[in-house]
Amino acid sequence: MPKIKTNRGAAKRFKKTASGKIKKNRAGRRHILTSKPTGRKRSMRKATYISKADTASISRLLPYA
To answer: Coil, strand, or helix at residue 15?
Structure first.
């Protein structure tokens, strides 16, 4: 069997944790930050986990992660 290629775009955006969850950074921190509340911007600094519904599709993109 040939090896499966990792989706390089997904590899740059997602990391797998030791427990098997997939971690991502939050969107919305690039521009138009003056109109967003400080608390919202602060909460966007922290990474979060992807939803259970998306776990299977993201895992397929990262076969060796």
So the answer is: strand
pLDDT tens figures, 15-60: 999 999 999 999 999 999 999 999 999 999 999 999 999 999 999 9
Among 32, 14, 31, which residue's Cα sits nearest to residue 23? 14
Question: Rounded to two decimals, what is the model's pTM?
Answer: 0.83
Whole-number Å distance between alpha carbons of 1 and 48: 35
Q: From residue 33, how far is each of 20, 26, 36, 43 by CA, in Å?
A: 33, 14, 5, 13
Report CA-CA distances (Å) from 23 to 5, 31, 61: 20, 22, 14
